[in-house]
Amino acid sequence: MEFLKKVLKISAIVVLAVVIIYLIVGLFFLGDKKSSKYGSFGSMVSPGTRGSIQSTDETEVNMDKVLINLRSGQYKYMKADMTFKMPNESQKEDLVKNMPRIRDSILRFSASQDSNILKTPEGKDEFKKNLQNLLNETYGFDIEAVYFRNFVLAE
Known about the structure:
Blueprint: H1 2-28, E1 60-69, E2 77-85, H2 89-97, H3 99-111, H4 115-118, H5 121-139, E3 145-154
Helix pairs in contact: 3-5
């Protein structure tokens, strides 16, 4: 009889735990899907856009953060969010369509940089100019400007 009481207690605890987990998962992950057209867990954004940091300029393309191991210098890592100012919407659309290849080129180019140069304002300006030239020579994009939305160097 004592054994049966223990089994019933354990069963009740397990059932209660399963109900609590179901409620948490159901409310948190499967909650009101009407709040976002992509569901309530995170949100999807179009390529070249970024949550609440969107430009009102129709010719700008946002590239989400890149995290790069730098070649040399005092800092080992660079994290940057960038925006590209395009001359027209046609080139903007082409840039968005080619974003995976462009992102790969930017990652490879950035990994070859020296952080001692990137930590100065002049080094950042040179990096932007070289990036513009790289994308022009490689893909034919005439980028008017590159803006950093975030830029961090870390050891």
